[in-house]
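Protocol step 4 of 5: obtain the predicted structure for the target chain.
Materials: sequence only (see below). No template structures provided, no constraints applied. The aim of this step is simply to have a reference model before the mutagenesis design in step 5. Sequence pasted as it appears in the construct record:
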Amino acid sequence: MKKILNRPMLAIVATVIGFSPAVAQVVAQDDRELIKLPVKQQNLLLAEMRGLLETVDDMLGALAQGDMKKVKYIADYRLGFGHARFKKMLESGIPESQVEKLRLEMLKRRKSGGGHGGGYGSGQGSGHGAGQGGRGGGFGQGVGRFMPPEVRQLGRAMHESAGKISITVSKIKGEPTAQDYKAILADLQALTSTCRACHVSYKVR
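Step 4 output (structure tokens):
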């Protein structure tokens, strides 16, 4: 039978592994808003979160190497609107030039106020704009329909931040300067702040 640690015991364990009792108290009192998801959608969402963490880490690695072409590719194809759709297209053997053409068309539609398409989450988002009133919800349809509007807005903000990283990198001519790195990191911090805001405010079960 599983034993559940009471708060005093949790505080002791947390102290031993490096957390303060104050942090243990916050963990014990986790009062973030609960989003109830079916098991399938919960697994999709958690897999997507892990994938995003890996992607941000890959971007940081590219920045450390000064590989701005890779930074832009990650922003456009792995973090931007439609990234799950692009991934499926590329994996199916569709030429990158054709995928890039679609990405630019989607970008043009967004600028003119049309739907994003693409979605957010494990290949669930193709055609998302049409299915959600033309604007999309930041998550793929499989997960997005269970999400509060505030969470969908955070998803959109994250993708928009990725778009800003791409634009910032596009403006670099020649070797990146310290100011270029500073601008990219500012855009990246705006992106991770949306992740932080979501994780601080919500939990899933």
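Step 4 remarks: Residues 116-141 have pLDDT under 50 and may be disordered. The radius of gyration is 19 Å.
Proceed to step 5.
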